[in-house]
Amino acid sequence: MTTAAQHALPRPRQTLIFDADDTLWENNIYFKRVVDDYLDWVAHPTLDRSQIKAILNDIEAANIATHGYGTTAFLHNLAVCLERLRERPTSAADRQQIERLAAALISHQIELMPGVASALEELRTRHDLLLLTKGAAEEQQRKIDASGLASHFRSVHIVGEKDPGTYRDLVEREALDREATWMIGNSPKSDILAARAADLNAVFIPHRYTWELEHSELDPTDDRVLVLSSFPELLQHF
Known about the structure:
This protein is an alpha/beta fold. Helix content is 44%, strand content 13%. It has two domains: 2-25 and 111-236, Rossmann fold (3-Layer(aba) Sandwich), CATH 3.40.50; 29-107, DNA polymerase, domain 1 (Orthogonal Bundle), CATH 1.10.150. It is elongated, with a radius of gyration of 19 Å.
């Protein structure tokens, strides 16, 4: 794995595939704020906050296959966690309180990461840009539309999961050259490792609030993974 200081890439035309949430705009910070408020509300007599959060993480991991990602799935998981903690079904009042806690997830404005708009504007003049995001289709499309960034991308893909098969399908659909294709994102699991398993290059731009379920160890010896500290640094390499 190379760092910005260690490795400068040549600039032949490349295909750059961008993650959306927490790469182009803030996302998980809003979920984190809801979880913090939720933990305050469900204060438990024998479990501390970290133990309750671990239960919620387990529920989310178990429910991804059936409920996917996004706000609706998140609200469901909060209700399931509450049922487990209180050992009874959630009441109408419980569900209303969960919805009140999570109201900001639906109404918040899209906040682009620093330098994203100008960097994409320049990158599109010399490379082919694609957008690949996972989650509930309507919710992700709303964020894409609100971001004002859609016109920068040759194509936009909203998928239920980002695993190696997703990347292989995208390579085939878009007729991509794996050697000249880079996945750019903040999630080690679904952006970097899954892309590398499909034999693509990757650029890892860490985010302080990346979702815990997306954490994973990267191979520090992998010279086809470039690590940057900010989005605008892409202009130094592509």
